[in-house]
Design goal:
There is one protein chain. With about 140 residues, the protein is an alpha+beta fold. It has a single domain (about 20-135), classed as Alpha-Beta Complex (Ribosomal Protein L22, Chain A), CATH 3.90.470. It has five helices and five strands. The chain has a three-stranded antiparallel beta sheet. The chain starts with a helix and ends with a helix.
């Protein structure tokens, strides 16, 4: 590894120590469906976001995001060596990227086949305190 690349990697590694996030990869739902739920909690306080996810009508996506949010909170608590208090943590950033697409064929009339795309997604969720949220 070259010197410039090593220095850049060390800067990234140092910056990651102050970021608190969780990733959920290869979720077998389409990114569009997951983004509908992710948009509901963007910028919210974490306890309020957990409540919103608990009673969301899109139960499968909301259940997965709730588990991911709890993981991000636990990561924050682990790095700061204390429990999160009410009103302290916020969902600073959440984004949903497309994952691998499984391509399948469904039989169609007259010997043809219709293509079915089974999409998946990757979700990344960052949590932080209010003063970190103001910078963004």
């Amino acid at each position: 590894m070259g010197a410039r690349k090593r220095i850049s990697a060390e800067k990234i590694k140092e910056a990651r120590k102050t970021m608190y996030f969780a990733k959920l990869r290869n979720v077998p739902t389409s990114p569009r469906k997951m983004r509908l739920v992710a948009d509901l909690i963007r910028g919210m306080e974490v306890n309020r976001a957990l409540g919103v996810l608990k009673f969301c009508s899109k139960q499968v996506a909301a259940g997965r995001l709730e588990k991911l949010l709890r993981s991000a909170i636990a990561n924050w608590e682990q790095k700061n060596e204390r429990k999160a208090e009410d009103g302290e943590l916020y969902v600073t950033t959440i984004f949903v990227d497309g994952g691998a697409t499984l391509k399948r064929m469904r039989p169609a009339p007259q010997g043809r086949g219709y293509r079915i795309r089974k999409r998946s997604n990757h979700v990344t969720l960052f949590v932080g305190s209010k003063n970190t949220n103001d910078k963004n």
